[in-house]
């Protein structure tokens, strides 16, 4: 009894289960037969906001659409070819590379500075070097200093010679010269006549830069004066206290230079001629 009831109950259960499984299939069949499903049949229904729908390409937005298309093509190409991607940042530089670059830049600057300094010093000598060179060139030696001192002492001194002697001042030599016609003149070392004398000289005297020539004339004697480097044209004479040319009667017998006095003896009498 029990086994028959159980056997009878199982087929009924299977039939019920088969019937329940056949119903969804029948609905799917009916849907397929009736055509594509409606949006209302879907369980996932959502709305779109403004600007999210499809956009129609017009003349106004053609360039924008082309730009989007170009970017999409570039993105797809980059995905297919990763090696062609342009890095967003430059190559990584290690600390050692940076140090080497800095050291190289410093060395280049140092070389340029040294070369520029050498060229500048060669083309334009510094002002400190020029005076040093001039000082070495213009500074006289010890022997030259001694000669200069001796020359200064000589120039400030006095000399007296006869008509055949010479005197000197500042390295220039002076003498008396008689021409073929018997006239006399004062000449330099080159033989150039400086002044022509009217009488016959008896001596040549130098006191500092002034040359004195006592001379005899037909009516007496006088003293000719010549200033080296400052003589005026013509002949000048030493004058006495009264402003007239110093002199006297008779021929000169002797001449003696005594400091600032020229002592002349003529016709048995002596006359002191003041030179200062």
TrEMBL record:
<feature type="transmembrane region" description="Helical">
    <location>
        <begin position="98"/>
        <end position="124"/>
    </location>
</feature>
<protein>
    <submittedName>
        <fullName>Uncharacterized protein</fullName>
    </submittedName>
</protein>
<feature type="compositionally biased region" description="Low complexity">
    <location>
        <begin position="143"/>
        <end position="160"/>
    </location>
</feature>
<feature type="compositionally biased region" description="Polar residues">
    <location>
        <begin position="128"/>
        <end position="140"/>
    </location>
</feature>
<keyword id="KW-0812">Transmembrane</keyword>
<feature type="region of interest" description="Disordered">
    <location>
        <begin position="128"/>
        <end position="164"/>
    </location>
</feature>
<feature type="region of interest" description="Disordered">
    <location>
        <begin position="1"/>
        <end position="90"/>
    </location>
</feature>
<keyword id="KW-0472">Membrane</keyword>
<keyword id="KW-1133">Transmembrane helix</keyword>
<feature type="compositionally biased region" description="Basic and acidic residues">
    <location>
        <begin position="71"/>
        <end position="84"/>
    </location>
</feature>
């Amino acid at each position: 009894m029990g086994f028959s009831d159980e056997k009878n109950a199982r087929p009924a259960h299977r039939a019920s289960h088969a019937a329940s499984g056949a119903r969804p299939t029948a609905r799917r069949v009916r849907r397929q037969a009736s055509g594509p499903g409606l949006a209302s049949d879907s369980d996932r229904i959502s709305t779109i906001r403004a600007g999210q729908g499809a956009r129609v390409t017009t003349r106004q937005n053609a360039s924008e659409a082309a730009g989007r298309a170009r970017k999409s093509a570039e993105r797809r190409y980059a995905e297919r070819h990763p090696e062609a991607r342009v890095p967003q940042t430059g190559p990584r530089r290690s600390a050692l590379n940076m140090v080497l670059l800095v050291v190289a830049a410093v060395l280049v600057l140092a070389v340029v500075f040294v070369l520029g300094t050498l060229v500048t010093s060669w083309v334009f000598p510094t002002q400190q070097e020029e005076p040093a060179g001039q000082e070495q060139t213009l500074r006289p030696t010890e022997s030259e200093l001694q000669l200069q001192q001796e020359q200064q002492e000589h120039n400030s001194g006095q000399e007296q010679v006869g008509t055949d002697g010479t005197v000197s001042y500042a390295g220039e030599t002076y003498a008396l010269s008689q021409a073929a016609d018997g006239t006399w003149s004062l000449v330099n070392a080159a033989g150039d006549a400086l002044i022509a004398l009217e009488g016959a000289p008896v001596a040549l005297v130098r006191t500092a830069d002034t040359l004195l020539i006592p001379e005899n004339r037909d009516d007496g004697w006088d003293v000719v004066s010549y200033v080296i480097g400052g003589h005026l044209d013509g002949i000048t004479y030493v004058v006495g206290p009264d402003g007239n040319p110093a002199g006297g009667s008779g021929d000169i017998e002797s001449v003696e230079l005594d400091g600032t006095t020229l002592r002349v003896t003529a016709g048995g009498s002596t006359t002191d001629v003041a030179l200062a």
